[in-house]
Amino acid sequence: MLIVKGPLVSVLTNVGSGAANHTFKIEAAASGMAANTQVLDIVQCESFTTDGSGNLDITLSDGMPRVMMAQADAGNVCDGYVKPTTGGTSGSGSGSGSGSGNGAGGLSVGLGAIVVGVMAALTIV
User: Fold this and answer.
1) What would the pLDDT profile of 19-29 be if each residue is shown by its tens digit?
2) Measuring CA to CA, which of 7, 30, 78, 98 is 20 to 30 A from 105?
3) Is the pTM above the cut of 0.70?
4) 18 φ, ψ to 5°?
5) Nearest 5°: CA angle at 18, between 4 and 104?
6) How many Å apart are CA 96 and CA 77, to the nearest integer?
7) Dihedral angle over CA of 116, 119, 121, 122, nearest 10
């Protein structure tokens, strides 16, 4: 299921842990992402880059969700740690792990999100 709410793009599944990996293409028309945008998965702190058309290829592993937003909008959500996956930039710092106790970088998101083009926006690659 694809959920788009403001700057957040979420991909969720009900397959559960232990599921096989599945790769999806999130089309720019559904996500609103621009071409060559650096994107951050704020759940797993992995970075991605959209292609020249703004489409984003992602893999769901072990049933884990993906919640992405433009890296420029993510602030300190991952506190300096970003694991690169498909291009994008990598935060290389040493990571003190101190945190500031501000949750998700001050980001407040309601779960009553708008579902946009659920399966039409996702293409299994």
Assistant:
1) 888 888 999 99
2) 30
3) no
4) 85, 0
5) 40
6) 14
7) 130
